[in-house]
Amino acid sequence: MATTKFPPLIAFTGRSGSGKTTIIEKLTALCAGRGLRVGIVKHMRHEFDIDHPGKDTYRYMSSGAAVRSITNGTSIAIMADGIDGLSPLDAAPHLFAACDLVIIEGQKEGAYPKIEVIGDSTEAPLHLSGVENIVALACDRDIETSLPLFRRDDIVPLLNFISRLTGLTP
Asked: In 10 A of CB 84, how many CB atoms?
């Protein structure tokens, strides 16, 4: 049995509104400009659906299909049900084997390295609240930390750090 390639993986975590999406968007553009393929897993705490009533994928879901996909030959979307406990770490080697880097947004749990994005919230930063595996911070204010600290718009140094950490060749 062939082994599935496991792409380097990094997560961005932080409070809502901290700027995670903006950093990931800029980081993805920088990687794409260097010829790297980036896969992104957006973790959400609420329900979502791409199987809308009246559409074929909804009809397939309603008839009992556990996995549905839709493609036009160049893009694909996949929805699967009943995959309790499948973390981004579990899914990455299967769904993102063609990628050079996988970025997870919004997941605090998991044994993969995380960069915490700290915005303007007055709540305690996650790395002080027991969230594990935080390896760096992205923050526009001065804070005391022993972790590497990046400004939220320091995308090139951030990519260089991720590359050293994960073995990614930018």
From this structure: 5
